[in-house]
Fold these 3 entries.
Entry 1:
Amino acid sequence: MNGLQMMERVARGLRGARGVAPCRYDSGEPRSRATRAMVVAVALVAATPAFAEEPKLRLDLLTKRDAKLSASSLSREKLAAFVAVAAPKDNLTKVGDGTLAFVWERNGLRVPLVDRIGRWSDQDARWVSNALDQLPDLYIRKAIRGGMKRIYRDGALPTAPTDHLEKASDREGRGGVAVPAGPWNFVAVGDNLFANEAHCYKVTTHELGHCVQWDISGWATPLTGTNGWTGISWTTGIPTIGLRSWNGFVSNYSRKTHMEDFAECAAWYWLDPDKLLSANPAKFAFMRDRVFEGLVSPASARRDRPENPAPVKPVVERLGDAKDDNYALVKVYGNYFMGPLDGGFNTVRYRGTTALHLPISRTTIWSWVPGISKGSAPVTVTTQDGKSEQIGFTVTKPWWKFW
Ligand SMILES: [Zn+2]
């Protein structure tokens, strides 16, 4: 039993024994000094989002106010009333009306938990409720406004109208999916969300992030992107197109699209802001200023997330031919190249001489052996992220014999 639970129990005992009604500070009854102090404290709590999220801090605040009153003037009844206010309110209500299984509510925000392919268990709902409890009103309000009108409980995997556009392997292991756009307006979750409670908190925060982005830029999101955000790492909002650099990301997954990047960074800002700041100060600033409007997460809402990906530069794994003539086509295979529709650039060099090239994908570039003399001509690929190691190649015919 923690301190808070103990105080709750004491309060319950006191109420029972002395017939004290639950605290009502809006009853219009004459207010004692203690009650007045409490009303002020409660008003402060309501006006301070960081405190409003955090039961322990809320209690601390009350205790501080409380300390101004002399201990002797504080009757047991009043103490009981204090404790009743200090105890965290349960924001989750079980409904069980048709498909409406639970409702999460706080400060006028309402999130229905609705059965769809699967059913909400008490534990599922509790974990999602605990996750929402740790997020600030402002973030949840933006997510609801952006399109999170309900959270569906699906089965093994959450389903979205765009599923047919995705490879099955991409959907594997998925815990949640957000479809904020009308007419859908939902977040759906599946079994994988509930692997453990920490995972549920992280993924829930991520899915809300998708809805918050939709709140900012709506249907422009998948086309031109989100002003001030997309341009940091992408040249366009169109998913997967326009990567500017392979670096500056908080996770490998966030390299997928600027939307996954947004949702990941929103979650990291709240759960592990230091890592977001070290991965990309511009993304940190956007989350702080535009999304969270200066709010900083309390220590209790934070979780350690995996380390940022190490910096990457292009890697050449192999060439289509180990040797060839001048002007012959040689395919370069590797990783971290810039694709044909990406931002950034590729340069292919043979023994230091720039070759004509054509990017085919982020792992394949076609190149044409430049007109250099025969012999060893190691190949490198350079992008805005750096220069690859050399890979051996031999030019078999000097260019002057060719003509
Ligand atoms: Zn996502």
Note: The chain has three domains: 3-86, 92-301, 315-402.
Entry 2:
Amino acid sequence: MTTLHVKFPREWPGWTTKEYTLRSAHPSCSKEGTSFTVIVDSETNSDYSSDSPVFRASVVNSSNCQSGAVVALKFAFRGDLISYLEEEVEVYEVALRSLQAKTVPRCYGLYTGHREDGEPIACLVLEYWGECIDKPFHCLPLNVRMRILEQIGEIHRQGLIHGDFAERNVLELDGDIRIIDFDQTRPHDCQCRMDFRPGEAAPDEQDFGCSHLWKLCKSDMRIWGQPSIGEPPQGVLSLKVRYRLRSRSKDIQTYRLLQRDLQPSTTHSIPNSCSFPSAINDIH
Ligand SMILES: [Zn+2]
């Protein structure tokens, strides 16, 4: 049995509780006699009145996570919300286990306990991976859109449809992407060849092989046809058109070098229509 101690800061606008002690609720994190202590960041960005807030925290003592590591704590403060976290941890630990720390954040398990008033609570602990995308997908630089498509394609390859795919569920840190929020997934037999051919004419939906990815490419990401907002100059575009997801997917270092090389092309000013209201700039 693993125990999670969550400590809140002394200067805390949220509530008076200073600490929760929770216990592992999934077999994958039930090592006998281990404990895990995290301290919530006092500047964390979250809605304190929410029944499902997300807080950033630092690990100070753990047997299965490096001290100093930054994690995201996804809470359920009502009994009826706990089942969503139970479904989500199952997805992280089973269907997407091989994609942890590559396509989805590393998962440190689900922990359950009770509030001081007796209400059951739960906390899903995930590797912290920055903030969510803060503008519509089609306003992002092409290389970022392609990286997101590559990542969502990997999830399809594991036999899952995300079920709630949106900008708020895509995190970006140091130029790399992680996908989150897996409480609405559905089984999926993906027949996509995963060759998106950005900049070319939209392929036939039937020929593409996956209607979900086809719609994502066409309507949300707008990678086909005429250059869209955020498109690089022609010389850079021709380099990107040669960019093939499959061949690069295992080589993050090469991807980052490519991204750095392309940096000057991604500094176009973005019109106001490409900004979200600040209200949805939460971590999740
Ligand atoms: Zn698919």
Note: Residues 2-127 form a domain with the Phosphorylase Kinase; domain 1 fold (CATH 3.30.200.20).
Entry 3:
Amino acid sequence: MLWVEDFESGLGLPSDEGGLWGFNNTNPHSGTYCYSHVPIADSQSATWTLTVPPGATTIQFWHAVSSEPTHDKLEFLINGVVKLTAHGTVPWTQSAVFNLAGATQVVFRYSKDSSVSTGSDAAYIDDIVFQVPDLTSPRTNNLNGGTNGTAITTGNSGGASGSPFTNVVGSPQFSNANPFGGSGLVATNGVAGADTHIDWQALGTVGDALYLRVYLYWAGAIGPATFKPLMALLGPTGVVSKVWMGNSTLKFRIATGGGTTAAVTGNAVMPVNQWVRLEFCYTIDSAGNGTSEMWTYLDPESAAHDDYVISPITAWPGGKPRTAEFHLWRDSGDAGRWYMDELAVGPDKLGPAPSTVSRRPRATVGASRAAHRAATW
Ligand SMILES: [Ca+2]
Ligand SMILES: [Ca+2]
Ligand SMILES: [Ca+2]
């Protein structure tokens, strides 16, 4: 799929502007905004480092420059190597397609020599296009590679845990409270009353179906009195859907867009103080129409669901999903919260987490029965 940054609705990717680059509405290539830098002095430079979407293979972008020829210039760098230089009067021009070859960041830099300024003395960037491979295998994360009590970040959430999250909002934490399967770590909200979520971006799928899985542990008081978000799916033009815990019903509903209007509501009432597994499937065709499905497993390792619902054909806003947010609710009075584990997204039904299948509960049996159990277990 293509990941497009057109600067029209905020930046969709983490970046470091050093306080020098920002949205510019005087000279966009498309729409209302492009990206440019504040005026800089002779011998200074303005550098913008942009994070590449996970797995992106190529980048192409539009640029314009108005500067002193040769001496004041825009440069574009991948892995520290200059790939493009532009100076003088350059109207909006599309770059070549550059191979990212595993690069996780790219750099745009406008720099000036020791004297003379010409024209508007600036560089402009718009309509950056990344080619991102479609999601052909699941992204999963069991959080077990983290450190209890520390913040979950994009930098520490991968490795032994699985696929790193590509965006973090608020204060999610690794926790060893209520470990799923008896050991390892889970995710919780580090700050009562504040929303927090851990996200995967760049979720292009080959077909029209996107599957999600979350293991959930509802701890403490029965709440919440108002709708609380469990998940959100975002497309290129806005929120596709949110999954909410109903107000006092303890049932999850899948809503159309960012509001709480249900496309479908589950029948299962969420139990307190035990792990459950929830799976979802969104089917969205090129016209934005499709169904949502939700499976509830009160035994999180079971292959047999306790509840299944499917929505009518729904007109989904926002476009094809490309970001999945997993939200961690925690009551402002700290009376209750939920924990999450074994998060996954993929192109096919996900099922129980593979890492837990081998952790078969071991029954304590008397010696006389042990031989029979060993033969038949
Ligand atoms: Ca634009
Ligand atoms: Ca100059
Ligand atoms: Ca875990």
Note: Residues 356-377 have pLDDT under 50 and may be disordered.
